[in-house]
Every structure is written in C-alpha cells, then in structure tokens.
Amino acid sequence: MDPLTKDTDDLDAQLRQGRKTDRTTLLQQLRSAGGSWNWLAGAYPRLVVGSPPDLTEDEILVETSIVYVHAERRLTRCTRCPDGGGACADDATTITVGEKPTWVDRRLRMEPCPKWAEFMVRRRLEKSGVPEFFFDSSFLKFTTDADEEELGKLFSFVDVIEKRVPAWLIVSGNQGSGKTRVAVCLLRSLVKRVPRALLWYSDVTTIRNLMKQRYDDPESTGDPFENARIANVLVVDNVDPQKHVKEPWVHDRVEALLRERWLACRSTLILTHQTKEELVSAYPTITSFAETEVCNLS
After folding, report:
1. Same structural domain for residues 24 and 62?
2. Residues 107, 22: one domain?
3. pTM, 2 dp
4. What residue numbers bound the domain in which 82 lies?
C-alpha cells in the first residue's frame, strides 16, 4: 500500500472514531440534562435563544461538540459588537469571521451578519483616507435643503463610474452644507457597487501639511500623493484657490494633481465653496473645468 494512502486511511479512521466518541458523549449529556433544550439552556445560554423548544436528540447530534462551543463563543462576542461591527475580526474559532450562528429550519446555521458588511465598508473607507468622523455617512441618513435635481447629479456620477466611464463633478456649497458627508456617502456607494475600484479621499489642508512636512524633513522619502494620483475615484476636499493662491507651492501642487488626473481620465470629485467660474479662472491649465457639471448644496 502506498504510504500516503495508508496515512490518509489512518487519519480517516481516527476522525470516524473521534466523531463516534463525541456523539456518545453528547448523547449522555443530553439525557443527563433531561432533553435537548434543557442541555442547550444549561450549557449554551446564548445559543439556546431562538432554538426550537422540541429539538430532538438526532437534530442535536448532527453537529459536533466543538460547533456548539464555538457558536456560543461567537454569540458572546456578538453581544459586545459595536454598531460598526467587527467584534469577530480576530475571533479564534472555527466559525468564519462575519458569520453569526442562527437557527434556521431546526438547524444551526452560520449566516452572514449585516454588521460585518458595515465593518468591511468602514474598513475600506479608512483605507481610502476618509476621516473616522465621517464613517457613518450614508445617503439614508443624509439631509439637505438641496433639491432633487441637484442630488440627482450625485447619483448620476455614481452610475457613470459603475460603467467604468471617467467622470468629473464639482460639489459646491457653503460651510456646513454637507459637502464632505455627501462625498463620503458617494464613496460608500462605490465601495458596494464597484468593490475593486481604488478610492481615495484627500483634503487640501492635509496635502499642504504633507508638503510642509516633506520640506522640513529632507530625509523623507516616497510620494505622499501617490494614491491621490492613481486612484480610480478621487475626492478632493476644501479646494479653495483664492486662499491657497497666497501659497503658490500649495496652489501649484493642487493644480498639478488635478491636471494629471484630467490627462489620465481619472474620475474626480471636487468639493469647494467657490463657483465653477472661479475654479476655471484659478486653474487655467485644466480646460475640463469649464464643462464639468456642478452639484450645488447651498
């Protein structure tokens, strides 16, 4: 007999014997407890919730002891899970992260947890440079005085990107009008609808600070704007050429970034409190600004 085949057969025999022993032990526990439900209630107080009260011994014996142990551990974590999800991200059980033990048709199933989906979205936003303060932004929660026609431009922008067509959009509004939140709402939609797209959020104030940091530290290496340059979809917040024109080294860098994305046909969302005409005047090398649609949230 081939040694590998013999080893496999021996392992199968051990697994079968282990399963038989486990079933025998479980059956003894069930009968000592006075029935399946009593056993669940005593040993696994969280897992018993939602279980059929008339579970039979055979229905319990479908799973192994370790399944019930790990299901109870997962449900214990679930009780401490924040609204943003993720309590099971580092859970050392045999249950897949993002799944929750649930009784379905008299069987214990591992069902996808909606909180895990939210956790994954938030993690994508974090890796896309979005400030944590805005993680909970969504179109379902977003309120604005802007009319439906203006908001429709945002949805159209998402639809175009979903078709892999490059698009530019200017979101204009006064301070407090919700420009940043609506941009994160848009990114959240793209995370779900275009999951493979590289998304990035940049604040011009942050760009300025990064540039100053590199100037003050001559030993710094790397390109702090790499993600902003190559992202499939970029949000550029606080674009204020009237303010930054006083610092040409900031103004020129922002214009160079936008021009590079324009030439590379990469989708870009500009957040500003200025008008399109002011942007056209401030960035004359980017002729597409004259044709870019504006969503006004003022």
Report:
1. yes
2. yes
3. 0.82
4. 3-117
The string of pLDDT tens digits covering residues 246-286 is: 788 888 889 999 999 999 999 999 999 999 999 999 999 88
Cα–Cα distances in Å, from 27 out to 20, 37, 42, 65? 11, 13, 15, 11
Query: Which residues does the chain have with pLDDT short of 50?
Result: 4, 6
Compute CA distances 118 → 78, 114, 124, 142, whole Å: 14, 7, 10, 17
Q: Does 229 reside within a domain?
A: yes
Structure tokens at 143: 């309120």
77 in the same domain as 19: yes
Backbone angles phi, psi at 175, to 5 degrees: -60, 130
Q: Rg of the Cα trace of the chain?
A: 28
